[in-house]
Specification:
There is one protein chain. By secondary structure, the protein is an alpha/beta fold. It folds into 2 domains: 2-116, 3-Layer(aba) Sandwich (Rossmann fold); 126-221, Arc Repressor Mutant, subunit A (Orthogonal Bundle). It contains 8 helices and 12 strands. The strands form 3 sheets. A 5-stranded parallel beta sheet has the order 2-1-3-4-5, sandwiched between helices. Strands 6-7-8-9 form a 4-stranded antiparallel beta sheet, covered by helices on one side.
């Protein structure tokens, strides 16, 4: 799951990025409304975390713009504005949730997962195909009921493929979801990741295959 964070307080943004990455999310962080809006127009994010006190534009104005988009991600406001009127303005302006600073990282992660589990959203609790099960909350993979060790990026890739089992997942979609802005991505990074995941599934005795659709992407089939 890829999250967009629009937060101008650099130490706090770094804290959120680190915490959400540890929770299994991919995250891109920007400190201005202009950069955040540009990112939202380029990448199809699964959720957006928005601070209201931005240096170049009021966050509520940006919220309304993001809310009006045809294909929009759920938006969680994260702000120091704790008055009832502020909460009402945010929720009426299109926010799906509202969290006041200071906050606990566990609560932020839980609220994101709750947004992503809503009908029509990107996240379900547990995915199962054949003898493999992926708990998207615990980021835990089980084969025949036994927990197995799989790297964070392999888990994220497996989740994308399991959610679209029987459908082609574009290489660009995998790259966008696994690697954030500012990360140097080698030309064959996705191919190498898929290769490692194939070998991992084969070694674990999982009756699934990942087919390469040349020039397009990858397809997971039983």
């Amino acid at each position: 799951m890829r999250i967009l964070l629009i937060e101008d307080h650099q130490p706090l943004a770094e804290f959120i990025v680190k915490g959400l990455q540890a929770a299994g999310f991919g995250i891109d962080a920007f400190g201005t409304a202009q950069d955040g809006a540009a990112a939202a127009g380029t990448i199809e994010y699964d959720a957006i975390i928005l601070d209201l006190g931005l240096p170049d534009r009021d966050g509520l104005e940006l919220l309304r713009d993001l809310h009006r988009r045809e294909r929009r991600a759920p938006i969680l406001i994260l702000t120091a504005r704790d008055g009832v009127d502020d909460r009402v303005a945010g929720l009426d302006g299109g926010a799906d949730d509202y969290l006041v600073k200071p906050f606990a990282m566990k609560e932020l992660s839980a609220r994101l997962r709750a947004l992503l589990r809503r009908p029509g959203a990107a996240l379900g609790n547990v995915l199962s195909i054949g003898n493999i099960t992926l708990d998207t909350i615990q980021r835990q993979v089980m084969v025949d009921g036994q927990v197995v060790a799989i790297s964070r990026r392999e888990v994220a890739t497996l989740e994308l493929l399991m959610r679209r089992a029987g459908q082609v997942v574009r290489k660009g979609t995998i790259e966008d979801s696994i690697y954030g802005f500012g990360q140097e991505v080698q030309p064959n990074a996705v191919e190498a990741l898929i290769s490692r995941l194939r070998k991992r599934l084969e070694a674990l005795g999982v009756p699934l295959s990942i087919h390469t659709m040349r020039g397009v992407g990858y397809l997971l089939k039983e």
